[in-house]
Amino acid sequence: MRAPEARPVEANCPGFSGADLANLVNEAAIAAVRAGRHVLRPVDFDDARDRILLGRRDGSNVLLPDEKYAVAVHEAGHALVAVYAEKAEPVAKVTILPAGQTLGVTEQLPVVERHLYGEDYLHDALAVYLGGRASELLVLGQGSTGASNDLSRATELATKMVREFGLSARVGPVSYPTGGSVFLGEGGSAFSSRPFAEQTQAAIDGEVAELLRRAERDATEKLEMHHDVLDALIARLVALETVDGPEVYELAGRPLPQDPAWQSALQPPSLRHTGSPPGERRGTTRPAP
Q1: For residue 230, which of 28, 72, 56, 108 has the smallest C-alpha distance?
Q2: In this predicted structure, what is the pLDDT of residue 270?
């Protein structure tokens, strides 16, 4: 029987295969050895997971003060929109420590392994994607290149909602498969062999844009309603660099998700260090060169 204070590794790694978990344990063992310990701790698995998903942390990769504040604004927006959204996955951790190509990360851990996604869940997911940009516009008065990956993923999801899932009243209950050359299969351009007319493409584009605008409005409204909480979380991130999920929920005045498996996956703050952040991750990214 598992000890009460232990947390299941698999609860922190939704979607990991057996090989991924083996790699995780190996990386955790390396982290423990580097720390001079013979026993693995939860923090070792946390660091290992971050290294696998985000890449190695580079000590020379230090943000400028204004960049650090901007990343804190961005990640605080993601986190609070997720906390206040009814169907979003719970927030497990927020960090502004750069790793790999990410400048900061908001980590969400699914309560359960989902196989179907309702329309309300997808709308909340879009709002969380755009929460970082909404926070930048609200606090800084302008957007930044840090939202490029968020916008890409949100656009991809919104396009699927319209083209594949039949969730647009204007386009209707139809599904248009991804295009591609008839000679290259799926290897060609998505626009090289479209199975619909130009007018349909214009309707799809309009619906996708409306979904994203609606999501941004939703995110902005949540942040405006809780501007004081947003400011407090930004200040906490600038000071500590990493804030755990329970602290975010406490700041927001929201109860923790009651699912025991999710709570067991949270590392107690006393074991958390400020050098680290799978599930779903929303982050500030460097723009591609």
Answers
A1: 72
A2: 33
Rounded Cα gap, residues 289 and 287, in angstroms: 6
Local confidence band at 107 (pLDDT 50, 70, 90 cut-offs): confident
Are 32 and 40 a contacting pair, CB within 8 Å? yes
For 10, 67, 86, 134, 224, the CA distances from 140, given in Å and listed in that order, are: 38, 12, 27, 10, 13
b/e map 191-211, b = 16+ CB within 10 Å: eeebeeeeeeeebbeebbeeb
Backbone angles phi, psi at 82, to 5 degrees: -65, -40
The pLDDT value given to residue 269:
36
81 contacts 89 by C-beta, under 8 angstroms: no
Straight-line distance from the first to the last Cα atom of the chain, in angstroms, rounded to the nearest whole number: 51
61-285: which CATH architecture?
A: Up-down Bundle (1.20)
> What angle (nearest 5°) sits at the alpha carbon of residue 107, between those of residues 84 and 157?
75
Instruction: Please give the positions annotated as active site.
Output: 75
Q: What is the DSSP string of 17-76?
A: -HHHHHHHHHHHHHHHHHTT-SS--HHHHHHHHHHHHH----TT----HHHHHHHHHHHH
**What is the model's pLDDT at position 94?**
92
Question: How many other C-beta atoms are found inside a 10 Å radius of the C-beta of residue 91?
Answer: 30
pLDDT tens per residue, range 38-73: 888 877 777 777 666 656 665 546 778 899 999 999
Alpha helices (runs of H) in 130-197, residue ranges in sequence order: 131-139, 148-163
- Looking up tokens 């008065």, which residue turns up? 141
Element (H, E) at 198: helix 198-225
What residue segments make up the domains of the chain, in order of their start?
A: 16-54, 61-285
Q: Residue 139: phi, psi to the nearest 5? A: -95, -45
Verdict on whether the full-model pTM lies above 0.85 = no
Q: Which residue has the higher pLDDT, 207 or 34?
A: 207
